[in-house]
């Protein structure tokens, strides 16, 4: 019977942890990474998605200029999870007049 109580306690603990993380994720709408907030990436999404993206808007260029771009290099493989096509980052930076690091 002790094993069953331990198993039930572990399942309850795991459920409590999952619920806690879910609540935290719901409340955390933006994560600061390399001098930018992930919510600010929305300003650039149109310019880095699709086959023929439009030019970046001034608000997007402001985000690009404020970002610590070399710091973003290790995150490049994860940009697609934010809806950003990594191959379109360098053209965006060029259009904003920002020097891109070698990783882009």
Automatic annotation (TrEMBL):
Record keywords, A-Z: Signal
Residues covered by the Bifunctional inhibitor/plant lipid transfer protein/seed storage helical domain: 34-103
UniProt KW Signal keyword: yes
Keyword Signal tagged: yes
Highest taxon in the source lineage: Eukaryota
Signal sequence extent: 1-30
Name of the protein described by the UniProt record: Lipid-transfer protein DIR1
